[in-house]
TrEMBL record:
This is Endonuclease/exonuclease/phosphatase domain-containing protein. It comes from the Eukaryota. It comes from Cladocopium goreaui. InterPro entries: Endo/exonu/phosph_ase_sf.
């Protein structure tokens, strides 16, 4: 269905309070729906945009333009967002979105060990998700409506910090001659042994590791590019950098961290000097803080007693200051509600809307749960039709791949983004032709053995 012929209907269902978001004048407004949800992380709140999209079936150009328009428009809000739905496109059709950094694929972390399954009839995966500043921790697949599978992503909604890949060794060998010299020092017996046993995983690990040893001067503390990996959480930032806290409170927290560290390193003179230099502004505001003993010649017992007392004083001062600032923000909000009738009415309408929505959601959830929990249909007529359909004739195909052909193909990919293994084409092109010839042997073994590496665990 197109916009001129009929209307499509796209919906978002949420167990959390959700407010519909208008992205402005869109070319196909009936093919998307957007909502914004406020998530709580401790005592902080974060708004996240969720969008469901339905792309144009059989029209790749229009479907791609529709997806690009939505991604660009939602980027103006500068908020974390998740875009899911039936794009009627495959992920490679959205290369412009991914290459420009407007959004990233939610499937990418799970494709490190193999492709994800198709989601509709045929071999196409057209139901997936894009996101910005939101990263999925798992993906699951289950039978869905009609001929499409349901794709489920899980997110750590307690915070919206980024996930990162493992640390990789830096390619710092610039010339091809130096790379060739270093590469010939590799022992490739493990590669040939694995290739003879058709163990394509072990063979690729040996070949990739040989490339890293040739291109990188140091591998310490880095994860090999051939290893499988899971996204690593960057963690929630320290409370001291929260935007709503004053500069004074952040300075007090910084001083507290340094003093606590000093209790573990009593003989660290540089840390003492750093505390004294960094506490000048705080000492002027809070003369009650005793910091002079840091420059005195006290016995170790006396120094520990004074230091423990300073830690307690700082903790009490921070708690007091934090409470006063929270109270000040509450008073400011109440003052705004009293002095600004428009803001007051907006807040009352918002609360009333949430109450009505929750009251209406109960019966709807109960009725839809019966639909969602019903067993999927398996029409016998369709199965009999498949049984009668003749299979295509098998044709023997023998590939001939050479290192020269692989290098020629790789040169067409210069400037493209690297995959989950962090290999850039520009780096691999520095390797000698012998490496590419072995790579061609590996590709031929994959074709002969019909093994494409580790099969991911799909749910």
């Amino acid at each position: 269905m197109t916009k001129d012929e009929n209307f499509c209907r796209v919906a978002l269902l949420s167990r959390r309070p959700l407010r519909q978001l208008d992205l402005g004048d869109m070319d196909w407004p009936d093919r998307y729906v957007a909502g914004i949800i406020e998530l709580q992380n401790g005592d902080q709140f974060q708004k996240v945009i969720f969008i469901c999209i339905y792309g144009h079936a059989g029209d790749t150009v229009t479907a791609r333009a529709h997806a690009q328009q939505i991604v660009q428009r939602v980027g103006h809000f500068a908020l974390p967002c998740v875009i899911v739905g039936d794009f009627n496109l495959q992920m490679q059709d959205l290369s412009m979105i991914l290459a420009n950094g407007w959004a990233h694929s939610l499937d990418e972390p799970f494709e490190a060990t193999g492709p994800l399954p198709p989601t509709c009839t045929g071999q196409r995966r057209i139901d997936f998700g894009l996101a910005h500043r939101m990263h999925a921790t798992s993906v699951q697949h289950s039978p869905g409506v009609a001929d499409h599978s349901l794709v489920t992503y899980s997110f750590p909604l307690d915070h919206t910090q980024s996930f990162v890949a493992p640390k990789r060794a830096t390619v710092d060998v610039a010339t091809a001659a130096e790379v060739a010299e270093r590469w010939h020092l590799n022992d490739l017996s493990s590669f040939h042994f694995a290739l003879e046993r058709a163990d394509v995983d072990a063979a690729w690990s040996a070949l990739s590791n040989s490339a890293e040893r040739a291109l990188c001067s140091s591998l310490d503390g880095c994860r090999p590019r051939a290893d499988a990996w899971d996204p690593r959480d960057t963690g929630v930032p320290h409370k001291a950098i929260a935007w709503k806290e004053s500069l004074v409170l952040r300075q007090l927290r910084r001083l507290q961290r340094r003093v606590v560290q000093l209790t573990k390193q009593l003989d660290d003179r540089r840390l003492r000097s750093a505390i004294i230099r960094g506490a000048q502004h705080v000492r002027a505001l809070f003369p009650c803080l005793d910091l002079d003993f840091l420059q005195s010649n006290l016995t170790e017992d006396q120094f520990q007693i004074r230091l423990s007392r300073l830690v307690e004083d700082l903790a009490h001062l921070i708690n007091t200051r934090e409470g006063s600032e929270q109270q000040a923000r509450l008073v400011s909000w109440r003052t705004k509600m009293v002095s600004d009738p428009v803001a007051h009415r907006r807040w009352i309408k918002h609360r009333a809307h949430l109450k009505v929505m929750w009251e209406q959601m109960g019966p709807a959830v109960k009725s839809w749960m019966q639909v969602w929990n019903s067993k999927s249909a398996s029409p016998p007529d369709f199965q009999s039709f498949l049984d009668m359909t003749p299979r295509p004739t098998q044709v023997a195909c023998t590939l001939a791949i050479t290192g020269v052909e692989l290098v020629r193909a790789a040169k067409t990919m210069v400037g493209k983004a690297c995959g989950p293994d962090s290999w850039r084409v520009e780096d691999l092109l520095l390797l000698p032709m012998e490496w590419w010839s072995l790579f061609a042997d590996w590709c031929l073994q994959v074709e002969v053995s019909q093994r494409v590496g580790v099969k991911p665990e799909l749910h």
